[in-house]
Amino acid sequence: MAGRPRIRERTDEDxxxxxxxxxxxHAEDGYPVEGVASPRAWLTDPGFLRSWVAERDxxxxxxxxxxxxxxxxxxxLWRERTERDIDEVAVLARLFVSPEARGLGTGEALTRAVMxxxxxxxxxxVLDVMAKDRAAIRLYERLGWERLGDxxxxxxxxxxxxAHCYAWTPSAT
Length: 173
Description:
The protein is α+β, with helices and mostly antiparallel strands. It has helices spanning 15-29, 39-43, 73-82, 106-120, 134-142, and strands at 6-9, 48-56, 59-67, 89-97, 124-130, 146-155, 158-168. The protein has a 7-stranded mixed β-sheet with strand order 1-2-3-4-5-7-6, sandwiched between helices. Helix 4 links the parallel strand 4 (89-97) and strand 5 (124-130). It is globular and about 45 Å long.
């Protein structure tokens, strides 16, 4: 695989292939920590505003979603820091890249697509990333995301996973 991937909006027809990629990512990296039992539901959360995929030669490489900020733990940190309204922010969520497509700029291309959308709509972005996911952390920091603090990402029946919270504003880059 050579060259940058093509980024486009995700369609319902992409969901089965993305579910298979998600299962491989989880087996290799432990990401996501929840949702693998029902990938389609995890990928189509009702709070998602928009989703994109990366593809090359008709093969899906990964995806990312933009989510409504309601309920996101990172939002409290962002609001404390910025004193801005919740309607001025969205959440970068569900970013994952096929193990076969890593190191080719796929995660960066997907992240930049969300950032460009946010720039066009003058919307700040937040996210949380598991502390163990060092490559993702390096990507966000290289792209100008600011670390807000730390949380424990808790989910159904599990004690939680340490995570870092990040924010990006269109004026930051």
